[in-house]
Amino acid sequence: MSDIAERRESWRTKAREVAKNVVAPRAAEIDTEGEFAWDLAEAYSKHGFLSLLIPKEYGGMDADVTSFCLVAEEIANVCASSSLLVIVQAVGTMPVVLGGTSGLKERVLPRLAKEKGLICFCLTEPDSGSDAASVHTKAVLQGDHYVINGRKCFITNGGVADFYTVFATTNPDKRIEGITGFVVEKGTPGLSVGKTEEKMGIRGSNTTEVILEDVKVPVAQRLGDEGAGWWLMMRTLNRSRPAIGAQAVGLAQGALDYLIQFAKGKGLGEGKGDSLGVRFKLADMAVEVEAARALVYKAAEMMDEKVKGTPVQMFSAMSKYFASDVAMKVTTEAVQILQWQGLTKKHPLERMMRDAKVIQIFEGTNQIQRMVVAHTLLKSK
Ligand SMILES: Cc1cc2nc3c(=O)[nH]c(=O)nc-3n(C[C@H](O)[C@H](O)[C@H](O)COP(=O)(O)OP(=O)(O)OC[C@H]3O[C@@H](n4cnc5c(N)ncnc54)[C@H](O)[C@@H]3O)c2cc1C
């Protein structure tokens, strides 16, 4: 095995152990309570899952995108909510890694890597979701600082973060060329947390409004140049969408594994009576999960190999929407096969089905991913 393959395998093994021993026993409770699991955040931090994409020089794990996906998949196999914590930490971090000055990185990244700090990614607004280019949050330069005003919504970890990666417009007329990223620290005057969303799925993940009222942010906390925000966002999403795909694959695999055990226990796999229908469904589910996994790791590999000219953005979008559509289908079928039992909390399948629905929506809806794919196809030769 090559060094890279060994390193990836060790991330998978570690994540599988943590998932089995630490996360799985908490999964149902996290869903029922709908509360942020601080104990899991602590465990992830200890194992390096919250600093996967942070470079070594800042105390991080310097892992590649494939390893990041493996960790997301293993945890989602038992609890999709808890897997999102790992992913969002990386999503909030990447713009800092890619666009922060060395001084800003030295200030922020070691706190995330070594001091259990959390970060979130604030893009969506009440009137700007899929059409991210139309953000209304404004950042106005006044001397050596910016004044930021706006309202973000549906922000994962909004109520628990120590740092906020915020996207605002510094020039609304320029649309995407006017979007600029900033890091805002918790406790900065004018930064506050609004309502916490009560969601149908991914309930263990904290989702809130984030309000910015005359928030003064030093120029040194700007990410890259003015107007560089859109590209920082896109480069971040290229890395995180395969991880969301991996989260969906883990979730779908978890549902399939559970269904197989159930089917064996009930004799549904024995070829009797109506079991042929179940067998065909199991076969189709297994094929679809494997196909989704192959696409996710192809997209991750493309990111890791960094070969110029490869359509990483398209594969990243494909992996997110295909895998989450598979997760939706597999969990829905699994609930159907268990019939009334599938609807009860005695089995984890109804939770998994609710979680799958949410994955189709966040990190860019599956409709938007299809648009990215079609756009790339149509502009290629
Ligand atoms: C649990 C959860 C966590 C989230 N976490 C974060 C976070 O941490 N940070 C963050 O910034 N955001 C976050 N979001 C927001 C998420 O990314 C947005 O919900 C998503 O991008 C869609 O935006 P919207 O809800 O405003 O829907 P809209 O953009 O209003 O879209 C509504 C519907 O129209 C469809 N649609 C829109 N435009 C088109 C089009 N051009 N063509 C075809 N169909 C279209 C969409 O697919 C959707 O079905 C989160 C959302 C959820 C549910």
The secondary-structure class comes to alpha+beta
Total number of strands: 8
Mind telling me the C-alpha Rg? 21 Å
User: Percent range for helical residues?
Assistant: 40-55%
Give the termini separation.
Answer: 38 Å
What percentage of amino acids are in beta strands?
A: 5-15%
What is the count of structural domains?
Answer: 3
Main sheet characteristics: 4 strands, mixed
Instruction: Order the strands across the largest sheet as they lie in space.
Output: 1-4-5-8
Kindly report the average pLDDT value: 94
Task: Characterize the overall form.
Answer: globular
For the record, what is the CATH homologous superfamily label of the largest domain? Butyryl-CoA Dehydrogenase, subunit A, domain 3
Low-confidence stretches: none
CATH class division of the largest domain: Mainly Alpha
The distinct ligands, each listed once, are: flavin-adenine dinucleotide
Return the CATH topology of the largest domain: Butyryl-CoA Dehydrogenase, subunit A, domain 3
Oligomer: single chain
Task: Label the CATH architecture of the largest domain.
Answer: Up-down Bundle
List SSEs in N-to-C order: HHHHHHEEEEEEEEHHHHH
